[in-house]
Design a protein that fits this description.
Largest sheet: none
Number of strands: 0
Radius of gyration: 15 Å
Structural class: mainly alpha
Shape: elongated
Length: 139
C-alpha cells in the first residue's frame, strides 16, 4: 500500500495522481506504517491530493515521529519552528529536530544551525533536556 502511494505520487508506472497516492498512504498509515504517516503529513502540508491542513499534517507526523521516523521528526520540528498548525515553540522544534539529526537526517542537522541562531542558551538547554527525556521513554 505504501509503495503504491509512492508510485502514484511520483507517477511511476501509473499516471501521477496525488489523491490516489493519499488514498494508498492512508491505508498503510492506518496500519501503523510510519513512512506512510509521514507522507500523509507531507500531502496535507502541501495540499497535494487533499485540502491543505497543517493540523492534519501535524497529527500524522506525530504518529510517525513517535515511532522514531526521522523525516517526520524533522517535519514536526519545522512546523513548531514556523508555527504552522501549532503555536510557534522553539523548545519543541529543537527537540524534534535534534532527534532527527541524531539519526543522520541531513535536513535536520542544517535546521539545528538555523534554529540555534533564534534561541537563547537556556532555551537550547531545555530543548536538549526534552529530547533526552523523550529518548529515555524508550521511543
Amino acid at each position: 500500500q505504501f509503495t503504491l502511494g509512492v508510485m502514484y505520487r511520483l507517477g511511476q508506472g501509473v499516471p501521477q495522481d496525488y489523491a490516489e497516492a493519499m488514498k494508498w498512504y492512508r491505508l498503510a498509515a492506518d496500519q501503523g506504517n510510519a513512512k506512510a504517516q509521514n507522507n500523509l503529513g507531507v500531502g496535507y502540508e502541501n495540499g497535494q491530493g487533499v485540502p491543505q491542513d497543517y493540523t492534519e499534517a501535524m497529527k500524522w507526523w506525530r504518529l510517525a515521529a513517535d515511532q522514531g521516523d526521522a523525516d517526520a521528526q524533522n517535519n514536526l520540528g519545522y512546523m513548531f519552528f514556523k508555527g504552522q498548525g501549532v503555536p510557534r515553540n522553539y523548545d519543541r522544534a529543537y527537540r524534534w529536530i535534534t532527534l532527527a539529526a541524531a539519526q543522520g537526517n541531513e535536513k535536520a542537522a542544517k535546521g539545528l544551525q538555523i534554529l540555534e541562531q533564534e534561541m537563547t542558551p537556556a532555551q537550547i538547554t531545555e530543548a536538549q533536556r526534552l529530547a533526552r527525556e523523550w529518548k529515555g521513554k524508550g521511543k
